[in-house]
Specification:
about 375 residues, alpha+beta, Jelly Rolls, 60s Ribosomal Protein L30, Chain: A, 2 domains, 6-stranded antiparallel sheet, 5-stranded antiparallel sheet
């Protein structure tokens, strides 16, 4: 009996490090991440705590209140947050199932957009106004429900009126047991405004590597080329196809997108197709021969720091009737492009991504050529000039 007890105690001790490692790598799940509840004004959704200023009404469960009619992007309802002209703003928080750890990097996403109509009363004039001025989202880590101890992430101004997925990466400087999501004004604040942000489909908070392997720099080859071996004059001449990922090959290719993205003719909503970007069947790995197209897009974004884009993935109907797989594949391809740009140094709040599956073909899916053109990745200009 005593020997059996020693055996089980020893087994438990040995298992603890493995269990702790597995828990550390596991995603941190949020309570009610889709903000599901009965639509109601002035009440936070189940599982979330009101972090607005005392004396002001709490956030809303939408749609249905204040003339907001936009359908949810996930489930049936979503969160409505506003900023007000009396220098107050709304937010929600909750206790995490496991604390954020100092020095650990995380990935997190929210679906965000802006309602064209969000009618309420001005706190300054007392008159009915439309709370439609674009605002931004801030994400805080803290030690209480509404503790803004550390700003973990912040979006650009949310101008889009259709749902887009915004991705965040953060590396907390402290250990935090609470997360807060709040709306805030466009900064710098010249004067407070009335605006709104709609929030849906919060992801789990996923631990990630803090220093992922980056793509080689555009101007520095990853491998130094060696001098060609000396060949005897009598030896037969051997020719080999040039590698497409060498620096010389990159300069020979003139990416299609480089000739299209001209600032002087650009406008919000304009869409550009990444002509020289393609993937293997049912995969989403970035191919080295496609990097020149991405380097071109990267250079444009670095030279135009006010531009925010959406990377959109599209498939043909070859996966019919598996629509779910088509959406997942197109999303993963768009995400792969977004992650590539972020790994090169583009701010992650300037690069959004979304998968559309086969919903928006540009050619009939009745020919191989049409299917090839529908299997594409596009870049849409979301905002310019801040």
């Amino acid at each position: 009996m005593r020997n059996n007890l020693k055996f089980w105690c020893l087994s438990l001790v040995l298992a603890l490090p493995f269990g702790m490692t597995a828990q550390k790598d596991a995603p941190i799940l949020l309570n009610n991440p889709s903000f599901e509840d009965l639509p109601k004004m002035g009440e936070t959704p189940t599982g979330w705590y009101n972090c607005g200023k005392a004396g002001e009404t709490p956030p809303d469960v939408q749609p249905g209140g204040w003339t907001v009619a936009k359908p949810a992007n996930h489930g049936q309802t979503y969160l409505g947050l506003v900023v007000r002209d009396n220098e107050t703003w709304e937010g929600v928080g909750q206790r995490l199932s496991r604390p954020l750890e100092s020095g650990q990097c995380y990935e997190f996403s929210l679906d965000l957009c802006r309602a064209e109509l969000y009618l309420s009363v001005s706190r300054v004039t007392g008159e009915d106004v439309n709370y439609a001025v674009p605002a931004r989202v801030r994400i805080w880590g803290g030690m209480g429900y509404c503790d803004s101890r550390e700003l973990l992430a912040e979006t650009s101004i949310i101008t889009n009126t259709r749902w887009l997925t915004f991705n965040f990466r953060f590396n907390p400087k402290g250990n935090y047991t609470y997360l807060m999501i709040e709306a805030y004004y466009k900064t710098p604040i010249l004067f407070p405004t009335n605006g709104n942000i709609l929030v849906d489909n919060a992801s789990a908070i996923k631990p990630i590597a803090c220093n992922p392997e980056k793509m080689p720099d555009a101007k520095k080859p990853a491998v130094v080329a060696k001098a060609p071996p000396k060949v005897s004059p009598t030896a037969p001449k051997v020719t080999t196809a040039p590698k497409v990922d060498t620096p010389a090959r990159k300069t020979e290719i003139k990416p299609a997108i480089a000739t299209k993205m001209e600032r002087k003719v650009m406008k919000t909503g304009k869409i550009y197709r990444l002509e020289r970007l393609y993937f293997d069947a049912n995969k989403y790995d970035i191919k080295s021969e496609c990097e020149p197209e991405l380097f071109s897009l990267y250079d444009f974004l670095i030279n135009n720091p006010d531009v925010v884009i959406e990377v959109g993935g599209h498939t043909n109907n070859a996966m019919w009737p598996n629509e779910g797989f088509a959406e997942e594949l197109s999303t993963n391809r768009a995400k792969a492009v977004a992650n590539w740009l972020v790994s090169k140094g583009v701010a992650n709040d300037r690069v959004q991504y979304k998968g559309y599956g086969w919903k928006y073909p540009i050619q009939p899916n009745t020919t191989p050529e049409g299917k090839k053109k529908n299997q594409r990745v596009e870049v849409k200009i979301l905002t310019m000039n801040g």
